User: Which sequence fits this backbone?
């Protein structure tokens, strides 16, 4: 049995502890006691001297070690909760999921040198908060601080409050299934604005008045010639882009007011059936500010990189970044598989894409050299339909797949997800993590599940 | 060296030994050969055995010696030796000289009396002579070298005396038979001789001479009063010896010579050993030479030295005749030369080798004809007859018991057919070989063996040494041929009956499928959402085939149900397009039937072609469902196939006589039967993607027609029993044909009308096959529930053959009612494949 020298450290610091390690060794009789040299510094900080451990230790064993060490320090007495705290161990930039020796072999590290093991509090398992039922498949979901917005295949857009009560559902507006929804952050009083894109080629800018429990179709954004697949609103909430099956990306404004110079068009919607022929809606049309053409197939994901840059993923296997000021394509990253979903994280500065070959791939949209795919997360058994970064952590993301599973990932553990959320009984169509404490997912089982994610809480607490 | 034996006289010549005296021997006696004389001048008297008697070995110069045997049995031990100077009589048993007489004495005595010469018959004289004389005589016979030298020198000088010596010896011999009475005279006249005798008087030899019985056991005479016979044959009486023990004792005590007195049996007398005898005994006892004067280390005079001498030993010059050419030879040569000249003597003829014995070739047809090439080849390629198997234990007359069959086995053997038997006889056991009966099948077996040998055709098999690895074509690894579909991504569930046909629209967003209940569903490809369910077709009749119109500006789906082909606008995708499609169809005008001449022609055409006119669906539930046009047929429509432009499409009506294929034009709403005659049962038709070709697949052949020239271009021999499906490469030069006998054949149209490659990976019938529009992929689905995806790269280089590699077997569909995958089609843009199956599902593999 080979022994490894490891050194522990953590960046989470709130306590200062000095450890008498020799005492620990003498006292315990655990298999690693005699061979392990650990160095704990953390909020749950432990001594810096290296430990010698067996190569076959798992992260649970290391976890025990840390707990023992902390017990020795009497750190945990102050806060009884801490005794339940689990730690995750980061070795050579990757979370320890197998035995330490295998992990090191995979990484190609030497067993001779002292390993620096970083440890931190493990993400708690997301807990199921809410289950929202609907009539049809859920195609898009997004959370606000107070509301839940979801688009469905029954052509409706529904708003729930965070307690799970359905507040309002727009039955009119779209004539085809809604494919994506998005909130627009406006700071104008009580009113809320949101967008919904649909297969009927329209994007509707809605106005929601919580006090009246009413939604109103403000603008009908027309321009796409095929179904709108994805929407993305910029950080300030002034503009949004949409990707569509017609291979184009269009830029729109979100302003609720009539823009000067645009024509006010009254539209009469006629349904095909003569019997049901009636005037349905009065509305205003809005035309795109810009159309970005370059993709050769359906654009399945768009995301804002900055105020003037967006990136888009498409079924033509490419990720393209666009400069909105010039309307030019800036770069194009070519993959080998069609992209079903795309999200960009400001924290990690990485683009995550869900692919049809069951992988989640991480890309650096700004890098030109080297491998374009920085990492690929593999565990799903079906197409990854949706992927979203955590708003707080640069390492965390959530993905939904056709294999009915929502997974949370730490990008440092590409083979094993953090947690599998198996509440869905049918295909997961959309996930959302725009609110840091809640993960939402909607699927073909007509349900939206909300999971409370406490990782954000911890971070916040720390802050 | 010669030995002659007469009745009385033995004459011997004696071998010679090299003598140091030979250097003086320049003259030799005539009767000796020159060489022998040169080599041996010193005579060596070898002992030779004569009737068991050892003779003598003495070195002396002996000229001649003779055995004289006057009375056999009495005088045989005597030898007469002629030493030129002396004549010596020896007793050859004792090597004692009996008589020695110089020749000169003899010569002198010649004159006196012939009678005196009888030497042999002298009576032994009692020892009255002194010992000294005897000793001298002894030394006389043992000739010293000096004496020999003297002798030789004498001989040398007295060569002419030789004749007289011989005469002397002869005289001696003639005197043998002389009167005994003369002995006395001789003894008297020869005092020297008598001295010799006296010298030897008390030796046993002397006794022997008196007693002639010879060397016999004297016990034989124990009972007689005599002890033997003397020379005269008178008995010798035993001396009176009546000594008792007392006498013996007294004798012992008193006689000082008692210790050296021995009893002589032969004479029956006591004998006192002489001092010489004692000395001899002592010498013998101490292992020395019996003769004290013998010098074993006398110096050796080497007369044949290693020093080179100036003169040869024999310095005789060469004879004159050795220098003179031989006259005889000259004459002989002259004769031969003359003979050659005259031609009498001819040179020897060269030896002609014996002609080989020629046998008559019984089997050759004609000897003179040279053998043909094939005959020679046959001889050369002679194949020996196969060998018979060697007999085993079971063939033995006394096989081990385990080879003997039991009764049951014999019964079984008898019941078996003779061809099936392992052995053609039953092993039996016999005690001994002679009890073995004659083998009854011998002749038959030999006969059948002969038949086997000359009736059995034998062929030489050319064995080719090929590494089996080389025979396997070098195919690239499937992993290098990516992308291709590898796993099942989405399953489209919803149909309640088997899905016979699927079709993807040109954008790849929508999938249409039709099931046996007559329901067409439109699916969103990415999410497996069934967006539309189109009903309203003829109730309960299965949807045989559906196909999207490839024209991107038209949203139409051709659905073959029962006897009609329905054009459906599914109203998905681009709203502008499907609305435009509706408008377009509205704007179409049905061709007028009975108005003008053209109409009449149309009538004729319609009469020829059993196609009912097109009808528009203007309203109603069917219109709501999207039905736009109906094309009625007289028989069930099995397949519809669009032309690449999306204006024409063909429908197949198997078993409809000569109108099995109908071509329809969408823009003119017209139909026509392109063939006046239709061979076989048409299975499916296909348009060439770029050229005006129509592929018509009957059961076994695919015919290619040029629609413009209206002629048959090609007939592809598929080698299949029943074609099920056709698909054409988007380039248009390659065709795959699936058949119900599990094959998928690839045709290179430029290459041949026979399959370029045949894939037989399906276990059951191939139901559908398809090409990918963009990727070099093709696939086939079969009744075994599998979809097999193959890489089929077609190179623009005409010299390069297409690369066909099966890359993946996609499993997932269940086989129900022996039906598996019924249709498959590739996604237009992605390397994905859809397959519909009898388990009511459609699956997407990516």
Assistant:
């Amino acid at each position: 049995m080979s022994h490894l020298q490891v050194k522990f450290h953590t960046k989470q610091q709130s306590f200062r502890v000095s450890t008498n390690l020799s005492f620990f060794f003498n006292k315990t009789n655990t298999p690693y006691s005699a061979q392990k040299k650990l160095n704990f510094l953390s909020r749950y900080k432990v001594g810096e001297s290296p430990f010698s451990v067996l190569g076959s230790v798992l992260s649970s064993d290391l976890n025990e070690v840390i707990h023992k060490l902390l017990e020795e320090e009497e750190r945990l007495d102050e806060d009884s909760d801490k005794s339940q705290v689990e730690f995750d161990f980061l070795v050579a930039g990757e979370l320890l999921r197998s035995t330490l020796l295998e992990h090191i072999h995979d990484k190609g590290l030497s067993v001779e040198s002292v390993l620096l093991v970083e440890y931190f509090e493990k993400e708690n398992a997301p807990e199921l908060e809410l289950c929202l039922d609907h009539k049809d498949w859920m195609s898009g979901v997004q959370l606000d601080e107070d509301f839940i917005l979801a688009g469905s295949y029954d052509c409706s857009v529904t708003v729930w409050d965070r307690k799970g009560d359905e507040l309002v559902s727009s039955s009119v507006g779209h004539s085809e299934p809604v494919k994506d929804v998005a909130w627009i952050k406006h700071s104008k009083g009580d009113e809320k604005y949101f967008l919904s894109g649909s297969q009927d080629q329209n994007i509707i800018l809605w106005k929601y008045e919580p006090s009246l429990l009413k939604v109103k179709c403000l603008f009908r954004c027309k321009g796409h010639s095929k179904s709108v697949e994805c929407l993305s609103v910029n950080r300030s909430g002034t503009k949004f882009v949409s990707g569509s099956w017609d291979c184009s990306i269009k830029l729109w404004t979100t302003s609720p007011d009539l823009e000067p110079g645009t024509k006010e068009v009254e539209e009469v919607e006629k349904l095909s059936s003569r019997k049901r022929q009636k005037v349905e809606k009065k509305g205003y049309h809005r035309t795109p500010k810009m159309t970005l053409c370059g993709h050769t197939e359906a654009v399945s994901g768009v995301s804002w990189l900055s105020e003037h840059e967006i990136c888009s993923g498409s079924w033509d296997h490419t990720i393209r970044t666009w400069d909105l000021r010039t309307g030019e394509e800036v770069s194009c990253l070519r993959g080998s598989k069609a992209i079903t979903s795309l999200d960009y994280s400001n924290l990690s500065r990485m683009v995550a894409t869900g692919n049809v070959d069951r992988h989640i791939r991480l890309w650096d949209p700004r890098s030109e050299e080297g491998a374009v795919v920085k990492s690929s997360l593999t565990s799903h058994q079906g197409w990854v339909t949706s992927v979203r970064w955590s708003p707080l952590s640069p390492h965390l993301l959530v993905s939904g797949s056709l294999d009915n599973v929502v997974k949370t990932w730490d990008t440092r553990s590409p083979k094993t997800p953090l947690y599998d959320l198996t509440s869905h009984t049918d295909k997961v169509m959309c996930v959302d993590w725009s609110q840091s404490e809640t993960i939402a997912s909607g699927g073909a089982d007509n349900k939206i599940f909300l999971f409370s994610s406490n990782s954000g809480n911890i971070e916040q607490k720390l802050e | 060296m010669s030995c002659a034996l007469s009745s009385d006289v033995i004459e011997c010549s004696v071998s010679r030994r090299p003598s140091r005296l030979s250097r003086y021997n320049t003259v030799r006696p005539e009767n000796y050969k020159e060489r022998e004389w040169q080599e041996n001048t010193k005579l060596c008297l070898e002992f030779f055995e004569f009737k068991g008697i050892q003779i003598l070995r003495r070195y002396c110069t002996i000229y001649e010696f003779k055995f004289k045997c006057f009375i056999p049995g009495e005088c045989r031990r005597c030898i007469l030796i002629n030493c030129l100077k002396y004549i010596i009589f020896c007793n050859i048993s004792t090597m004692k000289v009996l008589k020695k007489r110089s020749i000169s004495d003899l010569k002198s005595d010649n004159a006196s009396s012939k009678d005196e010469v009888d030497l042999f018959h002298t009576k032994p004289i009692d020892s009255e002579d002194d010992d000294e004389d005897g000793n001298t005589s002894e030394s006389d016979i043992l000739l010293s070298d000096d004496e020999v030298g003297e002798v030789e020198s004498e001989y040398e000088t007295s060569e002419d005396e030789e004749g007289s010596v011989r005469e002397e010896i002869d005289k001696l011999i003639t005197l043998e038979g002389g009167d005994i009475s003369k002995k006395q005279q001789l003894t008297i006249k020869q005092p020297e001789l008598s001295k010799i005798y006296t010298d030897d008087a008390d030796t046993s030899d002397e006794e022997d001479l008196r007693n002639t019985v010879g060397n016999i056991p004297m016990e034989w005479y124990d009972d007689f009063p005599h002890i033997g016979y003397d020379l005269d044959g008178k008995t010798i009486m035993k001396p009176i010896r009546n000594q008792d023990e007392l006498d013996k004792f007294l004798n012992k005590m008193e006689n000082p010579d008692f210790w050296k007195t021995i009893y002589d049996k032969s004479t029956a007398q006591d004998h006192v050993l002489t001092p010489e005898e004692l000395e001899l005994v002592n010498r013998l006892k101490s292992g020395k030479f019996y003769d004290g004067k013998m010098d074993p280390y006398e110096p050796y005079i080497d007369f044949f030295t290693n020093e080179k001498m100036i003169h040869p030993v024999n310095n005789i010059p060469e004879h004159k005749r050795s220098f003179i050419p031989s006259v005889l030879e000259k004459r002989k040569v002259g004769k031969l030369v003359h003979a050659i000249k005259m031609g009498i003597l001819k040179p020897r003829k060269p030896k002609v080798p014996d002609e080989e014995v020629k046998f008559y070739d019984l089997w050759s047809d004609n000897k003179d004809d040279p053998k043909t090439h094939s005959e020679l080849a046959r001889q050369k390629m002679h194949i020996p007859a196969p060998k018979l198997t060697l007999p085993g234990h079971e063939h033995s007359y006394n096989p081990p018991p385990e080879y003997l069959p039991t009764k049951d086995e014999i019964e079984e053997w008898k019941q078996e057919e003779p061809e099936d038997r392992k052995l053609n006889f039953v092993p039996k056991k016999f005690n001994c070989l002679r009890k073995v009966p004659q083998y009854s099948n011998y002749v038959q077996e030999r006969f059948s063996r002969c038949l086997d040998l000359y009736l059995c055709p034998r062929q030489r098999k050319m064995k080719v040494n090929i590494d089996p690895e080389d025979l396997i074509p070098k195919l690239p690894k499937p992993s290098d041929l990516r992308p291709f579909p590898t796993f099942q991504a989405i399953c489209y569930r919803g149909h309640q009956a088997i899905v016979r046909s699927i079709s993807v629209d040109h954008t790849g967003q929508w999938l249409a499928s039709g099931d046996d209940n007559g329901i067409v569903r439109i699916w969103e490809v990415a999410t497996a959402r069934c967006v539309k369910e189109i009903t309203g077709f003829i109730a309960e009749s299965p949807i045989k085939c559906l196909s999207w119109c490839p024209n991107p500006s038209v949203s139409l789906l051709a659905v073959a149900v029962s006897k009609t082909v329905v054009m459906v606008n599914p109203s998905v995708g681009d709203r502008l397009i499907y609305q435009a499609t509706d408008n377009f169809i509205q704007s179409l005008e049905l061709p007028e039937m009975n108005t003008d001449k053209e109409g009449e022609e149309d009538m004729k055409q319609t009469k020829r072609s059993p196609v009912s006119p097109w009808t528009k669906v203007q309203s109603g539930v069917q219109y709501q469902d999207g039905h736009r046009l109906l094309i009625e047929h007289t028989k069930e429509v099995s397949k519809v196939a669009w032309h690449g432009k999306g204006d024409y499409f063909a429908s197949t009506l198997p078993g409809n006589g000569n109108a099995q294929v109908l071509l329809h034009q969408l823009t003119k709403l017209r139909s026509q039967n392109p063939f006046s005659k239709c061979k076989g049962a048409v299975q499916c038709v296909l348009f060439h993607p770029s050229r005006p070709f129509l592929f018509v697949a009957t059961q076994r052949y695919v015919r290619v027609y040029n629609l413009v020239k209206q002629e048959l271009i090609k007939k592809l021999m598929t080698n299949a029993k029943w074609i099920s499906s056709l698909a054409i490469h988007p380039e248009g030069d390659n065709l795959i044909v699936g058949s119900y006998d599990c094959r998928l054949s690839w045709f290179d149209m430029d290459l041949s009308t026979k399959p370029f490659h045949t894939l037989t990976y399906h276990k059951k019938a191939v139901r559908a096959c398809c090409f990918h529009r963009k990727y070099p992929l093709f696939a086939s689905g079969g009744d075994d529930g599998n979809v097999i995806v193959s890489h089929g790269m077609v190179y623009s280089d005409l010299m390069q053959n297409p690369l066909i590699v099966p890359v993946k077997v996609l499993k997932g569909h269940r086989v129900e009612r022996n039906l598996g995958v019924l249709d498959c089609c590739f996604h237009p843009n992605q390397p994905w494949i859809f397959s519909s199956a009898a388990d009511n599902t459609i699956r997407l593999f990516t």
Remarks:
- The mean pLDDT of chain B is 75.
- Chain B touches chain A through 23 residues (CB under 8 Å).
- The radius of gyration of chain B is 73 Å.
